[in-house]
Amino acid sequence: MSTHPHPNRNLNPFTRIPKPLRGWVLPAAIVFVWWLAVRLGWSTSPLLVPVETVLATGWQQIASGKVFSELGASLQRDLIGFAIGASAGLVAGAVLGLSRLAEKLIGPSFHTLKQISLFAWIPLLSVWFGLGDAAKVAFLSLAAFFPVVLNTVEGIRSVPAELIEVARVLRFTRWQLLTRVVLPGAAPSIFAGIHLALIYAWLATLGAEYLLVSGKGIGNLLIDGREHFQMDLVLLGVVVVGAVGFALNWIATRIERRALAWRGRSVASY
User: Fold this and answer.
1) What is the pTM of this model?
2) pLDDT of 19-42, one tens digit each?
3) SS3 readout for 133-185
4) Segments forming the whole domain that contains residue 145
């Protein structure tokens, strides 16, 4: 047997990059082009501030603790709104998915409401809850509510009818049918809805801070930068928002994989 490497192996230089670092190739390339554009004077627009200026502003915000204060306020609203919306979504989705009567009575109204743009609720929420944190949390709860409901209903209805018939033959109680057959079968779709809800709630956090009364929050950092025409502050806010969104997505993905790991073990055992 020949010990010479295959002639086509490792022709792609991308494969030589360690897997954990491959996701950073595009961001690094963008930062490099940004730095090069400023360095070579490709643009004289004040909107294109040097990378070094953004880094200096970021260090200043970290040293003063302001960025942590603003980010903490946003994350607190985000997680409270997500918890309320996801919990209500799980209950509503379970009711709609398990009860044909509820689907007939509530389903048409729900499917009508889900077509309304999320931001169209802001005038109504501001009347009901005012312009402070209560309205923002209610807005975030709505953002998290709909994807959880939809995925929970879809997951419950996608459980194979054969499994339900077997459970009935084995004389499972309703509780056993729900906990041992329906919920395990619907789990992937439910977790997908919760994952989406977490991301949507974070995206809605910025919208709420922009459109409702400005207060503590990462959106306030962006607003301050815009009003004082400090593009370094605006770009810093964009980087922080993107980094937090990436972190939330990473955490949700890891939790989802761990929570559903039993499915892989179950399949392997057969």
Assistant:
1) 0.79
2) 666 667 777 777 788 778 777 777
3) HHHHHHHHHHHHHHHHHHHHHHHHHCCCHHHHHHHHHCCCCHHHHHHHHHHHH
4) 51-265
- Tens of pLDDT along 176-213? 888 788 888 888 899 999 999 999 999 888 888 877 76
Give the CA distances from residue 224 to residues 70, 233, 240, in Å, rounded to whole numbers and listed in that order.
Answer: 12, 8, 15
The residue count of the chain comes to 270
With respect to residue 233, please indicate whether it lies within any of the assigned structural domains.
yes
CATH code at position 161: 1.10.3720.10
Helical axes 261-269 vs 231-259, angle rounded to 10°: 30
Q: Both tokens of residue 18?
A: 């360690």
Please work out, in degrees rounded to the nearest 5, the angle formed at the alpha carbon of residue 126 by the alpha carbons of 120 and 130: 165
**Total number of domains in the chain:** 1
Is the separation of the CB atoms in 73 and 216 below 8 Å? yes
Tokens of 268: 């392997």
Residue 43: inside a domain: no
- Burial of 233 per CB tally in 10 Å (0-12, 13-18, 19+): buried
Distance of CA 66 to the CA centre of its chain: 24
Concatenate the DSSP letters of all residues of the chain into one string.
---SPPTTTT-SGGGGS-HHHHTTHHHHHHHHHHHHHHHTTS---TTS--HHHHHHHHHHHHHHTHHHHHHHHHHHHHHHHHHHHHHHHHHHHHHHHH-HHHHHHHHHHHHHHTTS-GGGGHHHHHHHH-SSHHHHHHHHHHHHHHHHHHHHHHHHHTS-HHHHHHHHHTT--HHHHIIIIIHHHHHHHHHHHHHHHHHHHHHHHHHHHHHS---SSHHHHHHHHHHTT-HHHHHHHHHHHHHHHHHHHHHHHHHHHHHTHHHHHHHHH-
